[in-house]
Records
---
Amino acid sequence: MKALKKTFIVLMATATVLFAGCAALTQLVNLVNCKFNLANISDITWAGINLSNIRNVSDLSFSHLQKAATAIANRDFAVSANVNVNVKNETPNPAKLFAFDYDLLLENSPLASGQNKNHTYTINPNSIQTIPVPIKADIVSIIKNGQVGDVVNFTRNLTDYGNGKESNVKIKLTPYAGTKENSVKLPTITLNKTFQ
């Protein structure tokens, strides 16, 4: 079934970029054959505080707590992070990724989504390239009492997910192949530590 789906995607992609030239078609087919996994999640920030290594509220410094208090008073619960995705190209030719969508889920419910069409990445032959997927989530809907601990718990879930541990968080990635003018959406991947 998976092979049939890939064949169908390649056929659709071929039709879509037929006029884009041979090189674009080769790069598109190569991206279909690439595999993706989750490298890690880094630079988890809220209110100007890097929470990537914070496990408990007691890990926060006094200046962090001051920033957190200001953010809470302003109802600012916007968290950002880099989801670092490994793209593995086992073909003898380059593959090109020019866009992707992402969905952030908490306990299997959508929390945030976004897309990036600003960067084009070329994955060299027989190599693995790490691509940063910047995500943003306003987690005000999951904050119970406006507590710093609620934010720390969420970011701890992000960190655990990035390390391959059990977590209430999941991230789905939908890569695009082809060209900006003629694009093909590839199947959505729920990122984990296994190449898929």
---
Amino acid sequence: MNRLRRAALAVALALGGGSALAQDPAPPPVADPGPPLSGYPRDALRAPTPAELKTATYVRDVVYGHRDGMALTYDVFRPVKKANGALVVNMVSAGYRSSWGPPEERQARYQALIDKGFTVVALYHASAPRFQAPDAVADVRLGMRHIRLHAADYGADPGRIGAWGASAGGHLALVAGMMADDGNPAATNALERSGNRIAAVVAYFPPTDLAVLLQGRLRPGALNVDPSLLPAISPIHSVDPGDPPTLLLHGDADRGVPAAQSELMRAALDRAGVQNELRLFAGADHDFYVKGDPAKTDAYATAAMTAMVGWFERHLRR
């Protein structure tokens, strides 16, 4: 061994018992899978385990109405044990696309609620691209009438119903809360005579004032509608003191639906004296996404789900 190599070995041994000569390679960076679907934690988007499948039973494909000859449906997830008598409706909508999935494939998304004894309803509306946002609003309002009318059939109290959704689904959850009524006694559709008021709302990064959001621009798809229709489908214009307690969850760096949309809703609820809370997630884009940091993205999504379940426990449980 020449003099130079002996000197290098001596230095390496002095610094760390030879470890400097054979360091383990640095672990590869965690790949960023992109934004999670509708702000769900990654774990909630997996298939449910066999044990989880035993915690709920299903009432499938309940028909609450029709549009263009096609059935409008919802699925019910009933907890097997410790049902608390409250019911939470999830607005299945992303970009006003309401994509149906078998209950046994979707259950993990609702497991945190099922484990707390909540009955869960996955509510589907007539979907984009064929149908537009005003159709979704009308469908959801009708569906909530049917759910409230039949809540007892699913072991739930019609006075303890909440609504939750993300993005377009968050908009529709606010529609369910702010645009509810006691029914129209003169309606020809018997279902329209039933009320659809609910007791709590949670909305993730929701559009609340579509005219402000679009700023006169026409967008393709479900929001490519006559601008004069936008106020009638914007829940912010229906806020009144009788509205339910509302939790808004939003990333403060959201470029798809700016956090200002939730801030406008919070201000309107404050003016009406409606109990509400807005939680902002620092640096989070739409879907609670933090680019390049999947751990933080998932932590935000998990915190949002925890907050959602807690809100419904606070306002729906007895």
---
Amino acid sequence: MTERAFVIHVSPYLEHGALVTLLGEAGGRMTAVSRKGGMSYPEFTECEAVLREGRSMPALRELEPSEPFSELRGTRLFCGMYMNELVFRLTDDREPCDGLFYAYAEALSVIRRGGASDVAPALRGFESELLGSTGYGVDFLSDSDGDPVEEGRRYRFSPDAGFTVSASGQGFSGGDLIAAAEGDFSSKSALRAAREVFRAAIDARLGGHQLVSRNLYARFLAGRKK
């Protein structure tokens, strides 16, 4: 079987081998055994992977990069690590996730080559697709009663109930939620609203567990301030 895929995670296996986790175009997340070791497969590599079914998991026979490897650095590296960790922890093995491969490819392209101001919107788009494709999508256009979100109202969000009208006037503006639903992040407040909503939804899926990539990025920022 040949699968177009990205390398998401690599870990040692036995004496000289590696477990290589891929995000496949058709097969979703899958982990395969490689006898060649992990150094041959840097993360974020887009490739053509040749796999053979095994007793417990596929064997990775060949991996041919689709383009020269481009190393990520600084903040962009942590953004890539964040996406990889979300795929690794929030998707099920061998369960196809419609559109996730392409959302990952698009976001990674922006992280590699886009302007600094383009990275955060790209991450929000990826988070939206990840949640939607795994059955936990956020409906920015309806409240918990099924009524349309109104531009002039303010709303609170919880992963269980969705959006509810804020009696205190606190929370997210309906206009920002509508903009987020349309992928329009030209407004900083809409981008901030999407970030906070997706973070709450993702944290609920994690069940209290911390993301390593977030913690490492926080340390990175603290080190730069010093």
